[in-house]
Request: fold
Amino acid sequence: MGLMIPGAFHATHQDQNASEGNILVISRVTSILLMIAYFVYIDFQLRTHNAFYEEMLEAEEMGGDPNEHKLCVTECILAVALSLIMVTLLAINLVAEIPFIVEEQGVSESFLGLILVPIVEKAAEHITTVEEAMENHMTAVIFDVLGSAIQTAMFNTPLVVLIGWVMGHPLDLEFELFNMIVLVLSLLVVSSFTKDCKSNYLEGVLCLIVYLLIAIGSYFD
Reply:
C-alpha cells in the first residue's frame, strides 16, 4: 500500500495539476514510515516473538534428513560475506549495462527491472528456495521469499528515495499504473497460495504462469 500511495495520488490528481513537489513530499514521508514499519517487523521477528518463528523452523528441521550437513557460525559468516561481495560486483556491472540494454537492444525498463535484474541478482536465493521446497520445508521457503520481498519493498526502495533526498536527487515512489496493478495482483496470488503453508504441483504451475504473464506484459510495456 505504501509503495502505491504516490502513484495513486498522481493518477487521481492529474486534472488538478498535482505538482512534482507534492509527490516528492509524499514519497519521502512514505519512505520514512515504511522503514519504521520494517524495523518494527524486524524487532517483532528477531526479539519479541523470535521463539514463535524458531519453533516452526525447528519442527521442519526435525522432519528432515538428520545426516544433512550444517554450516557452523564461522562458515555461515564467510559464506554470507563472499556472497555479498560477489552479488555486489555482479549488480554494479549489471547496472552499468542498463543504458546499453535499454537504448541499444530495445528492452523495456519494466522488463529489465521486474524480470532480468531480479533473476540475476537473486539466482542463488532462487536455487536455495527450490531446494527447500523439494525437501518440503515450506515454512523456510515462505520466510525466504516473503522476507526478501518485504526487505525490498519496505527497506531497500525507501532507502534509495531517502539517499536521493540527502544527495539532492529527486527520487520518488511514483510507479506506473501497470506496475501498481501487477503488484496488487501478485500479492493476492501469493497470499492465496501460501496461507496454508503447503504447496503442490498445481499451485507451482499456476505461479509460473502468473510470472510468465507478468514477463510478457512488462516486455511490451
In short: The first helix runs from residue 5 to 12. Residues 5-219 form one domain. The mean pLDDT is 81. The chain has ten helices and no strands.
